[in-house]
Amino acid sequence: MEDLRLVGLSADGSRLVLQNAAGDSVALPLDERVHAALRGDRSRLGQLQIAIDGQLRPREIQARIRAGQSADEVAAAAGLAVDAVRRFETPILLERTHMAQTAQKVGVRRVTDSVTTPLGELVQSRLDEHGVTGEDLDWDSWRRDDGRWQVILRYATGGRDRTASWTFDPIRRSLEPADEEARWLTEEERAAPPPAAPRTRSSGPRLASVPSAPEVSAAPPLEAAPEPASESEVAAETARPAATPKPRTGSRRASVPSWDEILFGSAPRRDSD
């Protein structure tokens, strides 16, 4: 590369006049690229160069990266050097990371839960059972054509690389599982009812259990005791004149019922002669 020496401006001020070692003069147009180079604005200089070469504009490069393409994929599709693409990807990658982090904070309610749990916590609690730590999770996102975002989770377990994705609406702050892996991570299966206890057939009616200690022998069922008499009935009973006893042929005589016998209905006590 030959060094040039700045001589000055052209007469109309639109060009820089440069001179080589042989004394030959060269004119350099003062366009936006020269101004960007003088400011040291390499990003702007690269944008202008891509536009002049008729290749993808910087905004188009960023749109492709926002939609999920990598710098290598964009460079290969546009016929550009990878370094020329990478200078535009940094703010877009930060945007994609931000959307993935925002989605992890959105509450998700499983089938058997009555409250919502942030997506990130729910996924981590599920993967803790399989020994997958937070350091093993790779979250990413990319923008869809409909304006929503696709949130991607990549991790490895059981010797396999796995991927789960959710559709995220940042305006409504809503999440929907987009594949079976995501459904497994965030939707709990409905619990099946426990099996019913086996029913045994009995040959007859079940009897009430009898205390085992102390042992007692079976006794015939007792008749229900009559209702206790009221005080008025007792008074009427005592005021009623006693009937004339019939002559007895034996040695035993009838006794008058006691108070306990009237109240509790026990059999009248017979006195011996």
Provide an overview of this structure.
Among the domains are: 5-90, no CATH class; 97-186, no CATH class. The protein starts with a strand and ends in a 9-residue tail after the last helix. The radius of gyration is 50 Å and the shape is rod-shaped. It has helices at residues 32-39, 42-52, 58-66, 71-78, 82-86, 90-104, 119-128, 180-186, 231-239, 259-264, and strands at residues 5-9, 15-19, 25-29, 107-108, 117-118, 138-143, 149-157, 160-169, 174-177. The protein is of the alpha+beta class. The protein is built from 10 helices and 9 strands. A hairpin with an 8-residue loop joins strand 4 (107-108) and strand 5 (117-118).
